[in-house]
Specification:
The chain is an alpha/beta fold. The chain has helices at 14-22, 28-33, 42-60, 64-69, 80-83, 125-132, 147-154, 167-174, 180-186, 200-213, 216-249, 252-255, and strands at residues 88-94, 103-109, 114-118, 138-140, 164-166. Strand 4, helix 7 (147-154) and strand 5 (164-166) form a beta-alpha-beta unit. Helix 8 packs across helix 11 and helix 10 (200-213) runs antiparallel to helix 11 (216-249).
Length: 256
């Protein structure tokens, strides 16, 4: 999908991108190979060609961050299929709902492993950085508004600057309604009974029961809830991305 977006070009938005697609310019290569392009003046095409050649260099070198910098944040979903292999699905729990709240649990789900870190045990700047090493992009649900700002506040020395597919907004754009659990149910994800009704407020209470009373069962439930929140993001991202390709490209078979 990334090679089929022209929003990396100056002054190209949704309408002009659609005009290019309708004119048979479906990929960057089509643009570069064409002597003239619908809606693009000759002198401007030369500048656009330079941008696209640079984008190809970034793509060939696997520079997800470089490509992300060429897109608006709301368009980072277009990077997902190409860079999914090294994506990090991320979710946190805290002892409150403010940005300066203590981070209690963090799970980072990767293609080959899932790491859960707990405050007071193994959660630190170093362990978080290690879990994120080699990450191309983040996938979260509302992480742009909560998870990442909270982590930046708590761990300012950890590099958290990566392209970001935020499924709160990506799912909405794809036509899914409701929060994380509602979308999970729509695509057929069922949680275990003991964590099915846990939410962010209950996560805070579970942590307090562990912190104040040493309730190991509460901590275990909290950790399992956080892992489910994180691991399930992979299926949500796949579902949302598939819908977005169909909705925003209109030529699904062509761009695969």
């Amino acid at each position: 999908m990334i090679e089929s977006t022209f929003r990396i070009l100056p002054s190209v938005g949704a309408a002009k991108e659609r005009t290019l697609w309708d004119g048979g310019i479906l990929r960057w290569g089509d643009f570069l190979d064409s002597d003239s392009v619908p809606g693009i003046k000759e002198d401007r095409k030369e500048r656009c060609d330079s941008v696209l050649r640079y984008a190809y260099e970034l793509l060939d070198s696997g520079d997800c961050a470089g490509l992300g910098a060429m897109l608006k944040p709301g368009e980072h979903w277009r990077l997902y299929d190409r860079f999914k292999r090294d994506a990090a699905y991320l979710d946190i729990e805290t002892d409150g709902l403010e940005r300066d709240s203590t981070v209690t649990v963090v799970t980072v789900h990767r293609r080959d492993r899932t790491v859960t870190l707990v405050h007071g045990r193994d959660l630190s700047s170093q362990s978080l950085a290690d879990a994120l090493e080699g990450t191309s992009m983040f996938v979260t649900f509302n992480g742009s508004c909560f998870d990442l700002p909270v982590l930046r506040c708590s761990f300012p020395d950890v590099d958290l600057e990566r392209p970001h597919f935020d499924l709160r907004f990506g799912c909405r754009k794809a036509g899914f309604k409701g929060g994380l659990k509602t979308v999970e149910k729509e695509i057929g994800i069922a949680r275990d009974d003991d964590i099915a009704e846990v939410d962010g407020f209950e996560a805070v209470r579970l942590w307090k029961r562990w912190e104040n009373r040493g309730d190991r069962g509460a901590l275990d439930t909290l950790v399992r809830y956080n892992i489910a929140d994180t691991v399930n993001l992979e299926r949500l991202a796949d579902a949302a991305y598939g819908r977005l390709v169909t909705e925003y490209a209109g030529f699904h078979d062509t761009v695969q």
